[in-house]
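Page header: ASSEMBLY MODEL / three components / 1032 residues total.
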Amino acid sequence: MTESQAIAIPSAVTERQRRAKFRRNMFYIALIVVGLVAPFLAYPVFLMKVLCFALFACAFNLLLGYAGLLSFGHAAFLATGGYVTGYLLASYPGLTPELGIIAGTLMATLIGVLFGVLAIRRQGIYFAMVTLALAQLVYFMFVQAPFTGGEDGLHGVPRGELFGFISLRSNLAMYYFVFAIFLFGFALVQRTVHSPFGQVLKAIRENEPRAISLGYNTDAYKLVAFIISAALAGLAGSTKTVVFQLASLTDAHWHMSGEVILMTLLGGVGTLLGPLMGAGIVVSLQHILAQSPLGNWVNVILGIIFVICVLSFRSGIIGELDKMYRKNFK
Amino acid sequence: MTMIFGVPLAVFMGQLTLGLVNGAFYALLSLGLAVIFGLLKIVNFAHGAQYMLGAFAALLGFRYLGINYWLALLLVPLVVGAFGVLLERFLLRRIAHLDHLYGLLLTFGLALIFEGTLVNFFGVSGARYATPEILQGGLNLGFMFLPTYRAWVLVAALTMCLFTWFMIERTRLGAYLRAGTENSQLMQAFGVNVPLLITLTYGFGVALAAFAGVLAAPLYPVSPTMGSSLLIVVFAVVVIGGMGSILGAIITGLSMGVIEGLTKVYYPEASNTVIFFVMILVLMIRPVGLFGKEA
Amino acid sequence: MTFIKKTLAASIAVAAAASLAMSTAHADISDGEVRIGYLADMSGTYRDLAGPGGQRAMEMAVADFGGSVNGSPIVTFSADDRNSADVGANTVREWIDQRNVDMVAGLVASSVTIAVTRVLEENNGLGIVSGSAASSITNEHCTPNHIHWVYDTYPLANGTARAVVEQGGDSWFMLTADYAFGHALEGDVTRVVEESGGEIVGRVRHPFPTSDFSSYILQAQGSGAKIIGLANAGADTVNAITTASQFGITEAGQQLAGLLIFLNDVHALGLDATQGLLLTTGWYWDMDDEAREWSERYYEEMGRMPTMVQAGIYSSTMHYLKAVEAAGTDDPETVRAQMAEMPVEDFFARNGSIREDGRMIHDMYLAQVKTPEESTGEWDLYEILSTIPAEEAYRPLSESQCKLVQN
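Prediction written out in full:
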């Protein structure tokens, strides 16, 4: 009995690994299929909004879920990406949207480097507060800067032609472009998390002093994670600006930083699908509530969800489902 | 006329005084946050909402129960503080054993609920709360006309700050509290009821916010959103002073009020942002804040 | 059996005939329904200005019209834009794509309005802007697809500043909110004051939003100007006025001029703090019998007196429905043309007409806030001093940068 078990283990492991890999691949295929079919089942502009926020939440989740850093200033990156892309596309009509998006993302990355260098050595609540303060400075900059249009916002950003020849005027074309960007961002987070780099991040999250004693320069690791996260948040903001053809201060306000926390928390911190799920639910909720008689209560309802999540639902929807699955089927 | 950096001395002095008055508010609010953070290690994101609740309680108490300003100054902190006790007992305590960031998120949710609910009942225009008769009018300080009420705010807030400091640094209860901050398990072993201490501390922090709310009611229109913009500034003050430092919160609060006041003269456009700028500078030089202890 | 068959056949025939009749009668009303979407801030800063009250005003107009146009029912729906341009634009885009909305009403925060009107222009829709203040909405941001109804900053600056200078208030200190809106308002006021022979002796730009104005009021006091002009809005204005009254500004001989101030603001501030304030308004509930009659009906429903924006939403919805009826279609372009052809004359607008840039011009009023002694009730707040004729009140077309105006 013991002998056969001993022999069985290695093959079981490879079998399990193989199965896990298969499941993961199936899962990606299913995700892509759902994404491809979705615009025929639901309103594409709504889906694009969900995808943009899902990407934003994925970026945030990389930081909170895998590096254990709570940033309360992620709105700054979303807004930087949005404003820079919006400004460039609106003022230089020859510029193609993908170049605009790349420029916006780069700028957000740059701001991310700046934030990161200033904040990364702070921990826990200090880190949250420092990022919040830095984001307030960025907000101030956007209110002041003439190109943002201040309170009026930046309007009339053309969707333009992708690579110079694919018109994005139709919602369907735009949707597939956004979906491709989302997949890129999602895959990047996925790769990062499963890479040796991601493993070190997790080690830092679990026990930083130990990671340091193992010889890792933990600050450098955290900084890189922060910059990747900022870049992806900027990418989300840039894409969002192209979709909606505008950028406004709402994206830079600290409430936005709170909202992305809610999305991630609701979906499941540290799960890959959680942010997508959380963004989907929060965006739908805002969308449905805004047009219902309960419209005035949106903030109250979001607040209640926040409280419930923190009190008794901390793993989020995906996390809880995962727990249930492990309990009952393994 | 004597000039200071291109501004007449009288104007400069006037701005300094007004800065102190605002600073007194910052001190009072950041003190509450610091007390709560010291023992619970929670960043109380609902602090702005609790300040707003204080102002609203004063307003509604006057409107429906005829409670006057002086009585409100006494009663409202007790009532809102008691509400804080309930929040701690039934919500915050349940997550006390977790990462402290959850406390921040929970109170953030609570703030959304309080503000949103009041917006639905009272709108956002804000209502006026009459200045008590005895504090109407103004004082001529020679260099400026200072409304009596603002002078009173400065005195009342500073008195409350000193009282709190005395309670925590110079009394037995305060000693328990400080010891609880250092090592709560040891305190428990000595027979001190630490959970009760924590509950009361949170209630006290909330009561301080409510006290500030009552003080603010005659100054600013009482509206559900009055606390949310102030909150972020107060956070910055606490971080600059050093999280959890009582004296740090008071001194930093006052000095930030003055710095902000002077910015309003020299570069008014940046007056909402200058505190965050100071915060970044301080953290670059002294990561634990001006009065924080090295870990 | 045969009986059943016969009845069945007959009823099918009747139904077919009826549906045929229906379809001819409604040939030009898209989907056989007139669909109006109300988009406004229902939960934030501008809630009391338009918000749920504006929605009620729109519904009152629909009910008063009889609930249908030429036999086609009028359907209304609403959404909260949360003062966010992307939420607003997104909602309207969806209303167009999914619900085939015929007209969008409300529209308050200028960022939302500009975003929405761009969506309307792209999709050939129609919007009536009632809440926004920015005069740029029918200037550089004009489109053939929207009409700006109630007021804008031009007549506010124009009316108030001119009147104040004429009354002897010839030196001004400007307290300006530091963003596009405040700058524009400050610019308008500066021009009017200088044209009328006054001068601007100082100004301070405060961040948006600001809660403590004491420092700025002190600076204004030190400037020695006769008038302190408030080029800000909403909570900022309310805060500035409250602080000014605490510092005894009026007792010391200086006067405030509120450039953008609404009935709900004055109501919230109370007469003690606002008495004597000069302001320009597009309408006031107590200005005459017609206005009073409508306002009292509104009061019974909402428990508050209507602001000019809420009254304007009723007025514009009514005018829209009349135009749909007269044109026999809800096609945006035709209705827009029809609306411009009919003069606007009701309890809200006097001498009203819609210009080619989309500006509905109508008489504006210079008002003064009553003293507590003069006021006879909770809502008895303004005294109308004079009428500013429609033609003089608004920015003349000759100065327009609107692409629809040939200059």
